[in-house]
Each structure stands twice: as C-alpha cells, then as structure tokens.
Amino acid sequence: MICDNCHERPASVVVTQSKNGKTEERHLCDVCAAHFQPFQGDFGGDPLGIQQFLQNWFAGPGVFQNAQPQVESGPECQNCGLTFRRFIERGKFGCPECYSAFRKELPEVFNKVQGGHTKHEGKVPASYSGRIAAERKIKDLRRQMKEAINQEDFEHAAQLRDEVRELERSLEEGGGHDVVD
Fold first, then answer.
1. Which terminus of the chain is more solvent-facing, meaning fewer CB atoms within 10 Å of its CB: N or C?
2. pLDDT per residue over 7-26, tens digit each?
3. Source organism's superkingdom (predicted)?
C-alpha cells in the first residue's frame, strides 16, 4: 500500500483517528508519519519505538522539534543515577532498582501506555475456567462480607459466609464448573 499523504513511498504506519464519532484511517510512510502532528520525531529504523511513544505521550504533540520532552526531571535512581525524565526519553530503565525509584510515577505511565487497562485478566484454558470463576466469586463474596460486617449487617454477612463455604467445598471436591452464576 502506498502512503496516503505523499503517494510515493510504501505505507508502514496506520493512523486511526476518531473525531465526533467519525473514524478515519490513514496509511502513512515513515517520513510522513514523522511529520504527522501526533507523531513528531525521528523514527529512524524503528517506527514508533517505546521511547518515542513515551516522549510523545508525556510531552504532547508538536513538542519535538528540539527533541526535549516537557517532563520534569523527577526522582533519580540512587543505584544508576537515571532520572525519570531520562527514563521517558530512553523508554527503558537503567537497572532493576529503577522500579523502586520511580514507583510513584510508574502507575501513571502504565495507565497511559495500557489505555487504562492495568489489571491483567488474561485468558484461561477452558478446563480451568470454572475453577477460576469460582475463585473470583469467592474473592468477591469475601469483599462483600467485609462490607456487610462493617455496616453491621450480620445476617447478610452470614449468608455470604455460607455461599463462600459452599463454593470452597465444591472446589475441594474438584468442582467449580456449575457452581458460579
């Protein structure tokens, strides 16, 4: 497929934009994609590497004429000396201690990178799906039971306790397939 913008080079980047409920898809080459507003920067041999993605995300579009993100330097890793700003520029940590050094800033990074989906549910093999569902139901029932106890609704808490026991008994017997709603 040829670039929708220059009509010269092969398209290697697909840009999908939604405005006012209308979705538009454009196929761009590396050169045109680098000049496209949301993807400013030098793509080189790696079209939209993680460091470029993080820079664009934190600094916003149109900032990279000087290739300097608008992120404060933030904390610094005591082990390797890497600053949070440098991490955003590079897109990778300097050492394992960086995870601890940037602990407060990382949830925001992961939230933006993952589009708000930071809890991994994953796929479950069909043979385990009933068991996993039962375990999740038990966890939810225990949470509800704590809330009922905190609200001093002991009758409801006792009903929830009984449901938990029934599910646990079913799991111990190798069940869990038909127990969950």
1. C
2. 888 888 888 877 677 888 88
3. Bacteria
**pLDDT tens column, 125-156:** 666 777 888 888 999 999 999 999 999 999 99
Measuring CA to CA, how many Å separate 17 from each of 86, 152, 172? 29, 51, 50
User: What contacts 4, CB < 8 A, 6 or more positions away?
Assistant: 11, 26, 27, 28
Domain ranges of the chain: 1-47, 49-120, 126-172
d(CA 80, CA 103): 15
**For residues 168, 169, 174 and 176, what is the CA-based torsion angle, rounded to 10 degrees?**
-50
Question: Rounded to an integer, what distance in angstroms lies between the CA atom of residue 18 and that of residue 24?
Answer: 6
